[in-house]
Design goal:
72% helix, two-stranded antiparallel ribbon, 2 strands, binds fe (ii) ion
């Protein structure tokens, strides 16, 4: 798919076009500003997913309540970190913020209702996409925006842990990852794509 952004608003960095971060930036906005904004909205989505999953997990997967509460605490910290960066930069939250929250809540409710393997498959699908994007963001920003890169590195450590803990719950993988991965990974990609261009 070609890039159709107008050249004046088009940022393209990196050596490999496939790996490049592409954003439609507003006047005076840096790539780091935009990444903080999109990731802040994404963390809000994650909070809503875990809140909804926790609600159903008390009934469908009680043994996961402690684990999900820990993930939720991490996501609250991540949103606060990106929010603090936005505040320091004088930037408002993303236009996709409430969409992320609503989508996250719906996804969390459906998968929470489906039970422990669907819950774990959702985290693995999301974190796989999120980790790839965050590693790209760090690579892109470490030279030009050290504060953004440092925040991302801090968050990445937790996201990797969420991925690994949930992935261990999916051996053998069974049916849920096959059903959930395309939908959830695709939606996560779409939300990030949209956030970078809104
Ligand atoms: Fe997070
Ligand atoms: Fe996470």
């Amino acid at each position: 798919m070609g890039r159709r952004e107008s050249p004046a608003k088009h940022y393209e960095g990196g050596l490999d076009a496939d790996m490049a971060l592409t954003a439609r930036l507003q006047r005076g906005e840096t790539l780091g500003d935009r990444v903080m904004k999109v990731d802040h909205a994404g963390e809000h989505g994650a909070i809503c997913i875990y809140r909804a999953q926790l609600w159903f997990a008390r009934w469908r997967a009680p043994d996961m309540v402690g684990e999900l509460s820990g993930f939720l605490a991490h996501e609250l910290r991540h949103r606060a970190l990106f929010g603090a960066e936005l505040g320091r930069r004088g930037r408002r939250r993303c236009r996709s913020y409430h969409l992320c929250g609503l989508g996250g809540f719906a996804l969390g409710a459906v998968t929470g209702l489906l039970g422990r393997r669907a819950i774990a498959a959702t985290t693995v699908a999301i974190e796989t996409v999120v980790l790839r994007h965050m590693h790209e963001q760090v690579a892109e920003l470490s030279a030009t925006d050290p504060a953004a890169a440092a925040t991302l590195r801090d968050v990445i450590a937790d996201e990797q842990e969420h991925h690994d803990i949930s992935d261990r719950r999916l051996t053998p993988p069974g049916l849920w990852p096959k059903l959930i991965n395309p939908v959830v990974a695709g939606s996560t990609e779409a939300v990030i794509w949209l956030g970078m261009r809104l």
